[in-house]
Give the backbone structure.
Amino acid sequence: MTSPLSFPASDFDSWAATYDESVQAESSFPFDGYTQVLQHILSLSTVSSGQAVLDLGTGTANLALQFAERGCRLTCTDFSQAMLAVARQKLPQADFILHAKKIHTYLENVDLNKCSIHLVLSGGPHDSAGRSRRTFSWK
């Protein structure tokens, strides 16, 4: 099953240089309230300094940056090399992985309880209202 909102990595590669400006300036779907959504996700998490966070579809690492400020260890993945390049500039201490869009399918078969990760952030799949961030926490 494919996501109803599917875009090629090249769309994000060409957007990477201006992505952060776009999400801050946009006042309509899907970025209306972007900063507040990031803050809300952060407030829902129970991770603390030294714990590991896996951000699937990190983009330019706007959310990951806030977890880094809490002292978390980060692994960030995205399917856009250009987005990861921007993210690496913001978070040189994080681990970055370029992945295919199928990583969500792969992770459905991974026993996350056997991993040393405390929080997983995911950008998909999207629901009918366009909400796109899921947060999974365990341990």
Q: What stands out?
A: The chain is about 35% helix and 15% strand. Helices lie at 9-15, 19-25, 34-44, 62-69, 81-90, 103-107. Confidence is low (pLDDT under 50) at residues 1-5, 124-139. The longest strand covers residues 73-78.
